[in-house]
Design goal:
343 residues, alpha/beta, Rossmann fold, seven-stranded mixed β-sheet, ER
């Protein structure tokens, strides 16, 4: 079969022939239909410091996908041939304290699809049945392909109660925009999102944020004034990993405010811990999705009318992956989809 492979320990990716995966008794084989390009995939293609330390070559990459089940193992009962599925890309051990307690998203032995084992940028991918999410209601294939990053957004946005709250989102990348859309859909009063990219701020406006603020031109304090806030934001969703974003967020939260932080900083940085303490601010780190509570929430949000279509801005046949990756790396885009159905 054809797969997009990190074939050599150098910049680049290769569309090449690899063996079709085989499955064990607890696994399923999935015919991949669509995939989404993630920032992780861009790091692997670029072969930066993180990728050099993490990826063993050769490796089929990719973890955002939707496909059709074509084979099931002998012990699989809840997934059937013909099911339309997405996959939870964090494979857990099932034996550690957190796994045994049902907190699988906190497994310290997590293996990443497309990072630590062959991934979904291929004609077929295999997964444990316990990592498969069956789409029981109709869903657009492009949206189903990005359930993984959508899950990051939902996990972050729903970390704290939002009904009637004023929410600040720093970072208008695709996940930040999806988190802002979830917050608004879930009952937040005002949702303000910040970035320095006019293109991505325009995307955020399409999902119905209260205010999309260019922080290269305006301060968050000015945004507060435009929204008529007197005591600051109640909830912050930090999606950028930028030191200045978290510092500004802390400065603009009300006392007792709460921060969910998904943005991954490139290096350590200082914040005003005295402000965190004296304002009684809660900071919660977010990684991945809760298995599978977040997935239930995703499906219900879409059933309830949440529209993610503005976030998807590019679609390419899998054979045109170079152009797709170039657009994704350029930054003037939302989510980019690769179509594997005709490979």
């Amino acid at each position: 079969m054809k797969a997009l492979v990190k074939k050599h320990a150098e910049p680049g990716l290769w569309l090449t022939e690899v063996p079709e995966p085989t499955i064990g008794p607890d696994e399923v084989l999935i015919k991949v239909l669509r995939t989404g390009i993630c920032g992780t995939d861009l790091h692997i293609r670029k072969w930066d410091g993180w990728a050099q330390q993490t990826i063993r070559t050769p490796m089929t990459i990719g973890h955002e996908f939707v496909g059709e089940v074509v084979e099931i193992g002998s012990s699989v009962a809840e997934v059937n041939v013909g099911d339309l599925v997405s996959g939870e890309g964090h494979l857990v051990c099932g034996k550690c304290r957190n796994c045994l307690a049902g907190r699988r998203h906190l497994c310290r032995n997590t293996v990443g699809l497309g990072v630590n084992r062959d991934g979904a940028f291929a004609e077929y991918v295999s997964l444990p049945a316990s990592n498969v999410w069956v789409h029981r209601v109709p869903v657009d294939l492009d949206v189903a392909a990005i359930f993984d990053p959508f899950g990051n957004a939902v996990h972050t946005a729903l970390s704290f109660p939002l009904v009637g709250e004023d929410v600040l989102v720093t970072g208008a990348g695709p996940i930040g925009i999806m988190a802002a859309a979830v917050a608004k859909h879930a009952g937040a009063r005002h949702v303000m999102i910040t970035d320095v990219s006019p293109y991505r701020l325009d995307l955020a406006r399409k999902v119905g944020v209260s205010l999309a603020l260019d922080v290269s031109q305006h301060t968050i304090e000015e945004g507060q004034q435009k929204l008529g806030l007197r005591e600051g934001f109640d909830v912050g969703l930090e999606m950028s990993g930028r030191p200045e974003a978290l510092r500004s967020m802390i400065d603009n939260l009300t006392h007792g405010g709460k921060i969910a932080m998904l943005g991954l900083p490139a290096e350590e940085f200082a914040i005003n811990w005295a402000k965190v303490v004296t304002s009684m601010i809660t900071i919660k780190g977010i990684y991945g999705r809760e298995m599978f509570e977040t997935w239930y929430a995703m499906s219900v949000l879409l059933e309830g009318g949440l529209d993610l279509s503005p976030v998807i801005t590019g679609r390419y046949p899998a054979e045109e992956f170079e152009a797709a990756f170039d657009e994704a790396a350029g930054g003037r885009c939302g989510k980019i989809i690769l179509d594997w159905s005709n490979v």
